[in-house]
Amino acid sequence: MIPLSKAFPVHVADGNGGTFTRLGSAVLKSCTEPDSVGSALAAEIAAGNGCLGEEIALYKDTHNNQFNLAIFTMKDSQETVKLVTQLTMNFNDYEVAAQAPPPGSGLPTLPADSGMVQAFTGQGRAMVAGLGQWSDGRTSEYQKLVDRLEPLLKAVSKNVAGYETAN
């Protein structure tokens, strides 16, 4: 698995003169923890050759919008392709959980019915999931939120791809 510090930089340019700031990151004990993934994704992982680990990070942008990233390192790169395809096709089936902001971050914990967008990439054995939520939890302007998520997802995916091709 890619080391957390290489996967999730502290700061990432947002492409509009602002910055995403990492609030926290962690390696989870399992790729199928109930609070981290939905039942369909957990079942797909269990039915395949397995997952080596999941790493997560929470970022905010200059407007305090929240962005969650998760990297699943699979044992088989073919499963990465399958998972990315399945998850992308079910764009409103949220199988990767949003994280609560850490205490002292200044960000609210958004309610479960807050608007959210998601996007996925795959590089070698690694699938990267990105989720975005507006700071006020609103359920509108989803394409703008997808556009805001894109530079962060690309930066993390690029780091993961570099690590995957180096090994």
Strand order of the largest sheet: 1-2-3-4-6-5
Profile the largest sheet. 6 strands, antiparallel
Report mean pLDDT, rounded to a whole number.
94
Outline, from the CA principal axes?
globular
Low-confidence stretches: none
- Structural class computed from helices and strand pairing: alpha+beta
- Helix content estimate: 25-40%
Number of helices: 4
Secondary-structure element series: HEEHEEHEEH
Describe what this molecule looks like in 3D.
The protein has 167 residues and is an alpha+beta fold. The protein is built from four helices and six strands. It has a six-stranded antiparallel sheet with strand order 1-2-3-4-6-5. Strand 1 (11-13) and strand 2 (19-27) form a beta hairpin. It is globular, with a radius of gyration of 15 Å. The N and C termini lie close together (10 Å). The mean pLDDT is 94.
